[in-house]
Structures are given as structure tokens and as C-alpha cells.
Write a sequence for this structure.
């Protein structure tokens, strides 16, 4: 059961405004389109990254003995903010918090509400931290406010007993000189060795490349986002008006896209479709029937393209 947590998209604009609505100051997300360390280093300061990948269903994902890469640091679960994932659909927000809650107050202002939540949950073991997160009305309500409006479900996508692919988010962040992988489905934080803030871009990309290499070459559904300082703050500090204008425009675009995600367009689409049908019927000479057949042909073409490996936007659902 999702416990009232809805699926949200893996999008930098969604995650940035999710942070803002939780009360976090001067932090944003940037999507990375390449696994080049230089691309990540350019965003300095980088607080951590969250990585979306297809959850493996053909091989065991968790192990109590050792992870596929790195080593379990069971003692770290007591001194870091690490929470066991106890609910579906919350993995993206949990990965976000795994980075955020482990930053020093001098680096990031997480706001009084998250600060109170952190202080309360740090005294709990990881499994109870996960329960506290699952039951937080503040975090759940903010999370759900970015869910895409879904007035109906297309059941044709689930014929023949097919199941949808599952995706999962994990966090990577440097803490006290160590690169940690924080995954609520694992029994403990995973250490990937020593790592300074300056080394983080190179070290984390190496870990991610090894992780991606474990998948089939045809698998391309990955998403990587970096949690960084608000780029507008950086633009003001270095006195770059062009960069500032670009970042302000990006924020406006994100805000508009987030508003569209919440809106139910069924009524609008119905009115448009009704108008087009009326127009086609008035044209006569079989215009309506021809239009229907062309639409069917295009739909079949899209479905065939998907079966051959074409993809759609990926949503988190861990």
C-alpha cells in the first residue's frame, strides 16, 4: 500500500519546488545529462546526488552480508540520518531527505519544520525513522502536491498479466570524509571509501558508472540529479547578470510546468474533441471517417514503437 503517497516525476523543477515548500532555503536541483565529473563539478557546491534506476526483479536487490558495491557501515546508521524505507512511492522524497538531513547547518538552512523533524528522528533507529517519515503529514502533503493529475487509468497497459517496471531512487553524498550511498531498502548505509567534498564529483561518477555497467546495454532509463546551492545566489555573488536572468527564467518555467502537472485537462480535452468532431462532420465527404482511421493508424504506430524500445518520461515509484 502507498499509505497516501502518490507517484511524482523525477524532474529538477519538481524537486526544487518540493524543497522550497518544505521550507528549505537557497537549494535547488539540476539534472545531469552526462556522467562526466566536470559537469557535476561545475555546479559547486554540490551537496549530493540522487539516482533513479530500474529496480531489478530478476536478481536479489538486498543482502544482509554485503552489497554489490562498497561495504555496509552499520555503525554509521546511528550517527547519520539514515531511514529504512517503509512505504511505496516515497523513495524520491526519502532520497532527497537523505542528502538534505546530512548537511551541516552552516551549509544548508533546512528550515525550522524539517529541523524539528530531524532532531526528533535522530534519536530513533532507522526503521522507526522510516515510519516517522511515512507518517509525517507535512512531508507527505508537500510530496503529494506535485503528483500528476490522473483522472483515469488506462487499463489497456496491463493486458496479459504484464506488470509495469518499477523504479527506485537512492542518494549519494559525502559525509565526514566518506562517500555514502543511502538507500532505504538496504539494511545500512553503504560506504564507498574516503571522499572529500572536492573529490565527490569524480568518486560518485565512478560508483555510478559501475552501477550502470551491471545493466544490459539496452537499458537507458536512468536519471541523475544533483542537489546544489541555488544558482541564482551564485550568479549574484559572481556578478553575472546573464546567468541570473537565465536562472530566473528557468524558475518561471519550472513553476509553470508544475502548475500544469496539477491541472486536470479532461474537461478541456473533451471540449476540444467535441469541437473537432463537429467540424469534421460538417465537412462531409467521409472526412470524419477518414480522420478516425488516420488516428487509429498513428496510435498503432506509436504502440509498435514502444514495443521496439521507445520510451516515455520516467516517474519515480520506489
Amino acid at each position: 500500500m502507498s499509505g497516501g503517497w502518490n507517484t511524482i516525476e523525477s524532474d529538477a523543477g519538481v524537486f526544487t519546488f518540493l524543497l522550497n515548500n518544505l521550507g528549505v532555503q537557497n537549494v535547488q536541483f539540476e539534472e545531469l545529462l552526462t556522467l562526466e565529473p566536470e559537469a557535476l563539478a561545475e555546479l559547486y557546491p554540490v551537496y549530493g546526488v540522487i539516482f533513479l534506476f530500474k529496480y531489478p526483479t530478476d536478481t536479489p536487490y538486498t543482502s544482509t552480508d554485503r552489497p554489490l558495491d562498497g561495504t555496509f557501515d552499520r555503525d554509521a546508521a546511528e550517527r547519520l540520518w539514515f531511514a529504512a524505507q517503509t512505504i511505496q512511492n516515497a523513495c524520491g522524497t526519502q532520497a532527497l531527505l537523505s542528502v538534505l538531513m546530512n548537511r551541516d547547518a552552516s551549509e544548508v538552512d533546512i528550515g525550522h519544520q524539517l529541523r524539528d523533524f530531524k532532531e526528533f528522528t535522530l534519536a530513533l533507529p532507522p526503521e522507526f525513522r522510516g515510519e516517522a517519515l511515512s507518517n509525517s503529514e507535512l512531508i507527505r502533503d508537500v510530496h503529494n502536491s506535485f503528483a500528476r493529475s490522473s483522472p483515469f487509468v488506462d487499463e489497456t497497459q496491463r493486458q496479459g498479466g504484464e506488470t509495469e517496471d518499477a523504479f527506485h531512487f537512492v542518494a549519494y553524498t559525502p559525509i565526514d570524509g566518506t562517500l555514502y550511498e543511502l538507500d532505504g531498502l538496504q539494511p545500512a548505509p553503504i560506504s564507498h571509501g574516503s571522499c572529500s567534498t572536492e573529490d565527490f564529483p569524480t568518486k560518485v561518477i565512478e560508483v555510478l558508472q559501475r552501477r550502470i555497467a551491471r545493466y544490459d546495454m539496452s537499458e537507458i532509463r536512468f536519471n541523475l540529479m544533483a542537489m546544489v546551492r541555488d544558482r541564482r545566489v551564485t550568479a549574484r555573488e559572481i556578478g553575472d547578470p546573464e546567468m541570473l536572468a537565465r536562472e530566473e527564467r528557468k524558475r518561471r518555467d519550472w513553476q509553470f510546468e508544475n502548475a500544469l502537472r496539477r491541472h486536470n485537462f479532461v474537461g478541456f480535452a473533451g471540449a476540444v474533441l467535441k469541437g473537432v468532431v463537429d467540424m469534421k462532420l460538417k465537412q462531409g465527404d467521409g472526412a470524419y471517417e477518414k480522420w478516425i482511421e488516420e488516428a487509429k493508424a498513428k496510435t498503432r504506430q506509436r504502440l509498435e514503437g514502444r514495443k521496439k524500445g521507445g520510451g516515455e518520461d520516467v516517474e519515480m515509484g520506489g
Remarks:
- Confidence is low (pLDDT under 50) at residues 153-158, 311-318.
